Amino acid sequence: MLTRLSTHPFPKNHTAALVGVWTELQTLLQGVQRWGRFKGLGMEVREQDLVQHTLAITFLGATLIGRVRAHLPTIFDDRLVLTTLIVHDVGEALLKRDVSVTRKETSHDVAEYVAFCEFINKMPADMQLYYKTAFLLQFVLDENKWPLFDDDAQGILAELAATRHYEAVMFTITEHYDYIMFMIEHHENGNSYLLYEAMKTEIPIWPKLKKLLPAFGEIIFPPEVEAWLMEFRRLYEEAGGETRSTYDIVAAAKA
Question: Smallest Cα–Cα separation from 220: which of 230, 228, 209?
């Protein structure tokens, strides 16, 4: 019988480091479920792990960039934005958690960045810098978060703010749009509460996104879509839909 044992170990080099990261990424994101705050509310919510989220948001980002291409600088770096969309939640996966946007603090972001840096620390230095840069792009517009990151990260953030502003804007727009899309999916399937609840945090963000990129309010999120959402909210409340926050509902159930 022919042996199936490895008789020629692969050398410990940069290729081996890449194989390790490549292999782990394929299973790393699978077990971490999103939307934990909607669990136990007696509502049907589709399970979505970080693999599904990452694929969907990266596809969405590529689509949105294509739609507003004429409104972006000629030096806009598509690759950087798409890489950020791919890696932005790897830190959460490494820490085996998904923290709700309504509860997330800068300390969570920093811990995820540290975990991500450790994850890629065997890769070549130039690639480590590239992936750190991509990961940090998601925080460029939140300057209040910068001081809690280490000096190296703060330097990268400052450089990104000076040279890749529109890339940071497109990441932020894609992230918020992805959030709303998940809620619209559930509204279409009969669960309107998720969309109503999401609008509490999203409505205040819309003016900022329109200012950052006017094409957001013209192409990505045109007036007719915004008008529909506002009418949805009015009709939902008028019909007596649940308006309490998820946390208030859970607290009342436990009382």
Answer: 209
Q: How far apart are CA 252 and CA 227, in angstroms?
A: 33
pLDDT per residue over 137-189, tens digit each?
999 999 999 999 999 999 999 999 999 999 999 999 999 999 999 999 999 99
Residue 35 backbone class (left: φ over 0; alpha: ψ -120 to 50; beta: rest): left
Q: How confident is the model at residue 219 (pLDDT cuts 50, 70, 90)?
A: very high
Q: What angle do CA 131, 120, 127 make, to 5 degrees?
A: 45
Q: What is residue 221's three-state secondary structure? A: coil
- Structure-block tokens of residue 115: 């975990």
pLDDT band at 75 (very low <50, low <70, confident <90, very high): very high
Whether the Cβ atoms of residue 98 and residue 29 lie closer than 8 Å to each other: no
Q: Which pLDDT score, from 0 to 100, does residue 36 have?
A: 85
- What domains are defined for the chain? 28-254 (1.10.3210.10)
Distance of alpha carbon 183 from alpha carbon 195, whole angstroms: 5
- Cβ-in-10-Å burial (0-12, 13-18, 19+) of 141 comes to middle
DSSP one-letter string for 22-42: HHHHHHHTTT-BS-GGGTTSS
Report pLDDT for 81: 98
Rounded Cα–Cα distance for residues 115 and 188 (Å): 37
